[in-house]
Amino acid sequence: MVRRFAVAACTVAIGVLAPGCSLFGPTTKNEVCAEFDELGERYLAADGFIDNLLFIQAGALADVADRYDGTPSLGPDAEALEAISDSDSTDGLELMAATAAIAELCGHVLGRQALIPGGSGFGWGDGSADQPDADPPATGTPDRTPPTTGDPPATADEPGHDLYTVSGPGGLALSIPAGWVVGGSPSAANQQAAAPGDDRTFVRFGASTPPSVPLLTEIQNGESGNPNVRNGYQRIRLAETYFLGQAAVDWEFTFVKDGVTRHAFGRYWRQNGLGYVIYLSAPDTEWSSARWVFDAMATTATVY
């Protein structure tokens, strides 16, 4: 593969190599992870506005990944990164998918090393509408590549779905179904909304001061210690992703409440010193018809 950008990224002046950067021969784990971390820092600094330097860095990472001889094999990542470096657009999800094996090698997803580690204000305490009793769920490692599930994302102008914009804590604004009533939730940090007279399907959204642990650890702690989702808990996925230019975590699961299996999906991210959440909960039998509500929130969410 041709590496158009490798030399540019590995030199700080004509004929001078950046520290730890080799242009020929096999590369080391440290060299790969250094370029990986640089790409993550550039992506987070871009805050959604992708510039040429990010594409150059993608090419540099493709070069060192292609020359790495250890395990796991980084060949597929190198090819995907090369394609990104030759393109004129990308986003966080594409970059994460293109660096899945590199993330495994380096021990963290793209951009994780640049985050400042941050109880939870996400509404997991007593009094939640989702409040069964049973043994705590088992935990495991997060899914490395966040899969897509359910229907394609809805947009604010998608036919058949009338939406209106609401505001929540921390300057969060998003769209929810027209006619849904917004009120308080078991957590003062969140707003809750549901259809009038039917709270079986509801959403929560809000922000609070995060704890002093990394975001993924916070959500894993919620999974293992949350008393509100213990009965019949089944993880569907717990995966790191990107949202609004920030590292995020998606947590999707089912549990049993009052004899009914419920399905929940929360997206958690940190921005401007606050921890944010958008969350949908519905009976599992109605999930396929309710999922668009989460997608509508996600595609319209903004933090002011």
Low-confidence stretches: 1-9, 11-15, 112-121, 123-140, 144-159
Across the major sheet, the strand order is 5-6-7-11-10-9-8
* Overall number of strands: 12
CA-CA gap between termini = 43 Å
Main beta sheet: strand number and arrangement? 7 strands, antiparallel
Fraction of residues in β-strands: 25-35%
How many individual helices?
Answer: 8
User: What is the gyration radius calculated from CA atoms?
Assistant: 21 Å
What spatial form do the alpha-carbon principal axes imply? elongated
Mean pLDDT: 78
Helix content, binned percent = 25-40%
Keywords: Signal
Commentary on this structure:
α2 runs antiparallel to α3. The protein has eight helices and twelve strands. With about 300 residues, it is of the alpha+beta class. It folds into two domains: about 5-115, no CATH class; about 165-304, 3-Layer(aba) Sandwich (Protein Transport Mog1p, Chain A). The model is unreliable at about 1-10, about 10-15, about 110-120, about 125-140 and about 145-160 (pLDDT under 50). β9 and β10 (about 260-270) form a beta hairpin. Keywords: Signal.
